[in-house]
Amino acid sequence: MGATVPGQVTTEGQPAPPIRSGVDTLRSALAPVTGVLRSLEVDTRLFGMVAALALIWIGFNILSGGTFLTSRNLWNLSVQSASIAIMATGMVLVIVSRNIDLSVGSMLGFLGYTMAMVQGVWIPQTLGLGLEQPYTWILTLLVGIVLGAAIGGLQGFVVAYGGVPSFIVTLGGLLIWRGLIFRYAQGQTIAPLDTTFQMLGGGTVGTRVGALGEWPSWTLGLVLCIAIVYAQITSRRRKGRYGFPVRPMWAEVLVGAAACGAVLGTIWVANSYPLPPNVAAQYAQEHGIPVPPGGLFIPTGVAFPVVIMLIVTLVVTFLATRRRFGRYVYAIGGNPDAAALAGINVRRTIMLTFALIGSLAAVSAAVQTARLNAAVTSLGVQNELDVISAAVIGGTSFAGGIGTVPGAILGAVVMQSLRSGMVLLLVDSPTQDIVVGLVLVAAVGLDAVVRRRVS
Amino acid sequence: MITQATATPGAAPQRVPLVELRNIQVAFGGVRAVAGVTIDLYAGEVVGVVGGNGAGKTTLMRTLSGARPPDSGQILVNGQPVTIGNPRDAKALGIETIYQTLALADNLDAPANVFLGRELEAATTLDDAAMESATRKVIGRLNPNFKNFKTPVLRLSGGQRQAVAIARAIHFNARVLIMDEPTAALGPAETAQVHSLIRQLKSEGIGIFLVSHDIHDVFDLSERISVMYHGRLVETVNKNDVTTDEVLGMIILGKPPTKLTRQELAELHG
Fold first, then answer.
1. What is the pTM of this model?
2. C-alpha distances in angstroms, A426 versus A58, A75, A207, B243?
3. What is the per-residue pLDDT across B55-107, written as a single tens digit (0 to 9) for each?
4. Which of A183, A190, A262, A414 is the most exposed place for a label (fewest CB within 10 A)?
5. Distance from B20 to chain A by nearest Cα, in Å?
């Protein structure tokens, strides 16, 4: 707004005409689109983010000479986004209730280290049950999730019942949990991990692959499509029972088709990515499959970290939109006094949001350690910044009360797309940080401008 | 002090008050915001609670709505002593409050606000359609022009927001209603709507505490008027026994009408 263009006189009291008229032009140009969106009852913000993501993808694809939009790159992008996206779903609820959690990166490191100890030392040696048991992975994961909920809940308890600002409590947590890793690990790396546990990271061990494979992936896609259609039908029925207006049929079909198309398209991309040649060759050898000239094409399918992210997204979205807990989180964010006067247990609700993000940090820790096949002391360093950025780019407002889980997932994908695209373009790491930082500020700034115009 | 009850017009002398607040005290730090106040309310009656800024009206009402439990004193509902430790307790006793600030979650829509803390559920999930349906009914009764059931209440007009706050209070079959400055932010037409609503609720047997700065509102609507001054109750008077000037004198000078001199009353207009 402060930029002075030659020949243009800016005086105080004249509110920056170029930006206003720019926004107006944009709005009038988009008017037919928003009209259609209204009858589709699609979230305009979410639609805008999808459009922005599409632009980023197409831009990088052109700049990289067609290497960005390959199944290989997109598959890797999905796996790299997953661990941040998982935590971002919880961060949405924390920020919506007017708090912040700066400790997720350190919690992730601490929990990852603990889970490595559980599967590498405590189960096999302390309990004397031996390595590579069939239950090792799930027991490890459960211990991590419970411990994560406990330490997250502890921080939430201090915030909610102790009255200490969450910024301070979790800043302390950032130092404490990281410090504890060094205490216990004494700088050591714990590796290797349980081979089944490693599948959670989406990597390969011999011929075992941390992904669904071809037909289970298609089945997953089909199940999701059925769920989408089922949700549409029940929603229409419910509204119809009370005589509320429903979407016109063409809009309903279009929304359903778009959603199912996106799901099946994603599955198709994942199935277009073949296993690495050596893994495929070994698999062929073990199963007595003849290898055709030019190599064997075995689809990888949807990676397990992405499956986990999907489950987390569904669970947290359900909590946020269909349960009292979520309603209370948003009410507290909108007006904490009103929430208390309505009889809501504000303290308990806030504590639970922190317990939730703690358990999600454990899930992300499992994904990251499994992918590395090791627990290192630097695990999760600066992840809190990525997680908060994902939530904020995804439309979560620091003023509280506003933010969605799908938005945060998109935010995580946008961030990872920028990084991954710049890696393809051989942009160095400091420049990547600068770009991501600029995008973060610009996204929130643009959002603020649009929001002011709307209200 | 209970003898006040016999002065209630239209109420049989032996009737038990709907609500009694006995010797209520509230202190903030060293400041005695409410210093031993006793008032009561009968079914189908409006009691105006008036006083200057900082007189303790809102604090007194907050002890009844559960927002700030009293430090000492007794609350009786239908003659039975009760403990109101939080807003939930008050609502369970049929005591609903319309706060001056409205206490709405601005980011949520009207149905979510009306049912805040008392959501309807289908199995274990929120039944938004049922809540919207019920909200349409209750708000339709207050304001037939109300259409925005899906927008955050932030985007509604002052009158519409007021309607949401009132709907929340009356939907759950309140027996006692506390209205804190219900018309302070409203235009003339909306004020008239609230007045007719108060009369209607009264005729349905609901007891209403009406907290207001506006003497004329209070004279219009209430049977009795309790005047507070610096945390104390000056007196509860029968509306028909006093003039607006006398009530004004009570509010400004903190003296009961019998002790107000002619000169003091004249100076009010000075």
1. 0.90
2. 17, 19, 32, 86
3. 999 999 999 999 999 999 999 999 999 999 999 999 999 999 999 999 999 99
4. A183
5. 22
